[in-house]
Amino acid sequence: MSPFNRKLLPDTTRTRVVTSSMLASKQTTLAPALLATSSLIELMELATGEALEPFIALGETSVVAQISMTHSAPVQEGVSVAVTAYHTRTEGVRQSFRVVATDPGGLVAEAEVSRVIINDALIMLRAKVRQVVPLFDRFAAVPGPGEDVLDLCMKPPLGQRGLKDEDCFHGFHDAVQSGNIESIKGWLASGEDLSPLLDGALYVAVIEGRAEVVTLLLEQGANPKRLVDTSQRETLLHLAAKHGSMDVIPILCRSGLDPNAGAYIEQLSPIHCAINNLVGEGHDRTVKALLDSGANPNCTDDENWTCLRYAANIGDDCLAELLLDYKADLTDTTMKGDTPLQLAVRQGRKMVVSVLLRRGADPGLKDARCNAWEWLEGRDSGLYSVGRCLRP
């Protein structure tokens, strides 16, 4: 990234006459024919981006990382609006601005905007990986130990890392994406140094659920313990759980990943990720793969919710059966005192209630007007769901 040779950047102003395309009424018929907040945000992005243009090197771009805006006055079509960005501070690669929008009548809006100068290839990688798009850029670096996304902003594109023939990397990518083992082996034996791509390739293979490819890449030296997201401590095992890559899970566990490692602010383990992110076919098989690999069915998140509570809350009776097969605790209670059975009753999850009763849950519903067996037969328990069923 180009060095900043000034403590504060020059003020920049963007002036625009409000046109019909900038009106809120163009976005929804329920909105008034006045300048839309989204149009103001666009002008603020342009003004702050223009301030950083002299400091952006080839292969870089700047993006908005955070914006907090107060839109305080209405503006009609045809009125001229001036948006001025005042640079306030530099914090590492983050540049902060105070942005003020005015019209002839005075203040229209003001905002605090932060921008980051980032590698072009990296920002495209982040977008493409989220959508699992089969493109070469997915093999750009993923964060390593002690790194985060902003650290990677400083890394050069792949073409500047000593990799000679881009065509071979496209071919290697396609082979990993499709799971073509013979083609992958051919590329690995080609004499090209593919070591800078192995960790990224492992990332893709995990998302795609390519168990044989994952095994091969690990044998070649890919590091399974590099964090997918260092800021949230997300491992490849969390990634496999979210994408339903059940065949990859035991391989990653054998390579040393902890099936009970917490991640995110909520301290979600891989099994929580599997339950929260998967629906339909493969849901229970992914959870079973984690349980077979040592995941604790009674692990909790930061609000002390177990997997069985999740199953009761969402009404997944098959998942409840599976968890109970692996010794999930029927008597565990939430911070409000509800057992999984009582939570299922509050949420009206009859199939889960049936499973829990059949597997030995206490049918008592505390101070309710009936027990769980009677509730299944149609009696009103008196347990209300609004508020009480909310976490924790």
3D structure, described in words:
- A hairpin with a 2-residue loop joins strand 3 (80-91) and strand 4 (94-103).
- The chain has a 5-stranded antiparallel beta sheet.
- With 392 residues, it is α+β, with helices and mostly antiparallel strands.
- It has 16 helices and 5 strands.
- The radius of gyration is 27 Å and the shape is flat.
- Mean pLDDT is 79; it is low at 1-7, 129-167 and 385-392.
- Among the domains are: 12-119, Roll (Thiol Ester Dehydrase, Chain A); 297-392, Serine Threonine Protein Phosphatase 5, Tetratricopeptide repeat (Alpha Horseshoe), CATH 1.25.40.20.
- The longest helix has 16 residues, at 37-52.
- 36% of the residues lie in helices and 14% in strands.
- Helix 8 runs parallel beside helix 10, helix 11 runs parallel beside helix 13 (317-325) and helix 13 runs parallel beside helix 15.
- The chain has helices spanning 37-52, 120-130, 149-152, 166-178, 181-188, 198-208, 211-219, 236-243, 249-254, 270-277, 283-292, 307-314, 317-325, 340-346, 350-358, 372-376, and strands spanning 12-17, 60-71, 80-91, 94-103, 106-119.
- Keywords: ANK repeat, Repeat.
- This is Ankyrin repeat-containing domain protein.
- ANK repeats lie at residues 232-264, 336-368.
- It comes from Aspergillus cavernicola.
- Residues 18-120 form the Fluoroacetyl-CoA-specific thioesterase-like domain.
